[in-house]
Amino acid sequence: MEHDGISTAKVTVRVNGSSQSAAIDTRTSLLELIRQHVGLTGTKRGCNQGACGACTVLIDDQRVLSCLTLAVQADGREVTTIEGIGDTTQLHRLQSAFIDHDGFQCGYCTAGQICSGVALASEAAAGVPSVVTDDLHADEVDLSLAEIRERMSGNLCRCGAHNGIIAAISEVYGS
Question: What residues are paired with 7 via a beta bridge?
Fold first, then answer.
């Protein structure tokens, strides 16, 4: 579709289990769709260049940088944001570990950190190697501290809570 010279599309995305439809400019990022059209503000805009990881969400259980992902790429798919990981009455075990290990200070990057942490566990369980993986053909990758650090290297914490973040992920998923 085109409206006033701008290409538009209707997208339907399942966000945290709920179907959401919107008519959007085809240049709309997934981050903008989540925050402006769906109204979920847990996912943060950090650098808006894919360098910080603050906007990390899951599409079909795989992590993506929502600032660099077009909303049309998520059409017909399942998107999980921080609001879909645990809830106010029952925190996800990684969220609890972040609290226990003081894995946040200002909290701005926390949503992206937790989404990345959840996804890295799935990646390792599926045998997806990283640059520090010893056996590239393993069916499953053990999440050593080196593996966790490497897999979280795309998520920055400017406050200095990185050690608590790694400790939390290690407690929940580490080998």
Answer: 2
Q: Where are the beta strands (DSSP E) in the chain?
A: 2-3, 6-15, 18-25, 56-59, 62-65, 78-80
- Per residue of the chain (175 residues), give pLDDT as tens: 666 677 889 999 999 999 999 999 999 999 999 999 999 999 999 999 999 999 999 999 999 999 999 999 999 999 999 999 988 889 999 999 999 999 998 999 999 999 999 999 999 999 999 999 999 999 999 999 999 999 999 999 998 899 999 999 999 998 8
For the segment(s) 93-173, the CATH number from 1.25.40.10, 1.10.150.120, 3.30.470.20, 2.60.40.1120 is: 1.10.150.120
